[in-house]
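User: Sequence in, structure out. Go.
Assistant: Echoing your sequence, followed by the structure tokens.
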Amino acid sequence: MVVRPIGVDHFSSVRYLHATAVRCATCDALSDEEVAAFVRLVYSPAYADLLMQEEVHGGWIDEELVGTVSWHPAGNNGSTISLGGIFVRHPRIGIGRHLLALAEAHARQRGFERLSACTTDNAVPFFLALGYETAARGVRTLADDCKLPVTFMRKALPPLRASLH
């Protein structure tokens, strides 16, 4: 898998991936109405605005976009980076783990101390297995007509080790 930044030219592939991933992976976590609201948002012009607020990277196998991860600095004292989401086309083969490791490495290299994530219930075990802890449960409003039940998670990042010369 090759990981590279996502640009506007890839938004069509991103929309398809995000809509498909949510339809397939969240059937036990979201209601049909919540999934439908998210898919409507994904295919709306507002979704491009949301994507452009984050740094988005995609994982590609050949010409297929198989996963994305996005992040942005959290609105606190600058010590936390917030994951916008991890979406994968083929779950349980390491794509999400690889993309999350990329986001964590990015955060450490830039001096962030913590990562926060907002996830649907189906992904909580994934984050717990990778050292995240549950901070709270609540609702994330993505748009006026798209409110999703979520779990807020966090993880302290180990400091970047200084190289010895």
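User: And one key feature?
Assistant: The first strand starts at residue 2 and ends at 5.
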